[in-house]
């Protein structure tokens, strides 16, 4: 047996062992249309948007005057229940459009964890432009049912979809194909 063949056998054996032990766990992408929530309460609401994925988004309408709400006081939330197929560390992304620096956030609450603010920069040039925004915190989740709340934080932002994935390196660019098989319907 030459050295090259030996190396190949070693690599194949190592890969087989890794697969057998689950070290290369399945990459899961749970993609949910924001409007496919179980429940939604004001001031969060659904709205038609022909350019959005699924033709709908969720949003907080602009207040007049804008930016006078008290941040972190929940005035409305959208609720989702999902079935996570495999345990692991999961990363949350929102496909969002921000209004301005006082309309560029939601709060995301996963199960009983404290809410985490999903927010990002916005300029006059990219006001209400759709972009994927990653939540700064990740979550260790068991396989099975989990509750996700998207909560109002400010007036003016919109959300088209959200993504929960155990693929740390995945960076979404545009709207993704929804995976309704992970959504638990309202009982
Ligand atoms: Ca949508």
Tell me the CATH superfamily: Galactose-binding domain-like
- What's the story with the biggest beta sheet? 6 strands, antiparallel
| Shape annotation | globular
Instruction: Tell me the CATH topology.
Output: Jelly Rolls
Q: Examine the secondary-structure arrangement and name the CATH architecture.
A: Sandwich
Number of strands: 11
Low-confidence stretches: 17-23
The helix-and-strand class reads: mainly beta
CATH class, named Mainly Beta
Task: Summarize the amount of helix as a percent range.
Answer: 10-25%
How many helices does DSSP assign?
A: 1
For the termini, the CA-CA separation is: 62 Å
Q: What's the structural domain tally? A: 1
Average of pLDDT: 89
- Rg over alpha carbons: 20 Å
Order of helices and strands: HEEEEEEEEEEE
Bound molecules: calcium ion
Report the β-strand fraction as a percent range.
35-45%
Protein described:
The protein has a single domain (27-182), classed as Sandwich (Jelly Rolls), CATH 2.60.120.260. It has 187 residues and is mainly beta. Strand 3 (44-48) and strand 4 (56-60) form a beta hairpin. The longest helix is centred in the N-terminal third of the chain and has 19 residues, at 3-21. It has 1 helix and 11 strands. Residues 17-23 have low confidence and may be disordered. Bound molecules: calcium ion (CA). Calcium ion (CA) is lined by residues 33-35, 52-54, 56-57, 160-161.
């Amino acid at each position: 047996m030459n050295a090259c063949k030996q190396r190949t056998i070693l690599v194949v054996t190592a890969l087989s062992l890794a697969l057998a032990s689950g070290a290369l766990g399945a990459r899961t992408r749970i993609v949910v249309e924001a409007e496919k929530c179980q429940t939604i309460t004001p001031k969060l609401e659904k709205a038609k948007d022909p350019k959005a994925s699924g033709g709908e988004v969720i949003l907080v309408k602009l207040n007049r005057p804008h930016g006078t709400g008290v941040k972190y006081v929940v005035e409305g939330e959208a609720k989702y229940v999902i079935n996570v197929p495999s345990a692991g560390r999961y990363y949350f992304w929102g496909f969002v459009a921000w209004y301005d620096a006082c309309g560029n956030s939601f709060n995301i609450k996963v199960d009983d964890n404290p809410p985490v603010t999903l927010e990002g920069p916005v300029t006059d040039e990219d006001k209400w432009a759709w972009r994927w925004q990653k939540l700064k915190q990740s979550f260790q989740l068991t396989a099975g049912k989990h509750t996700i709340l998207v909560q109002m934080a400010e007036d003016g932002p919109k959300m088209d979809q959200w993504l929960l994935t155990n693929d740390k390196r995945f960076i979404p660019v545009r709207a993704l194909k929804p995976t309704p098989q992970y959504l638990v319907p309202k009982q």
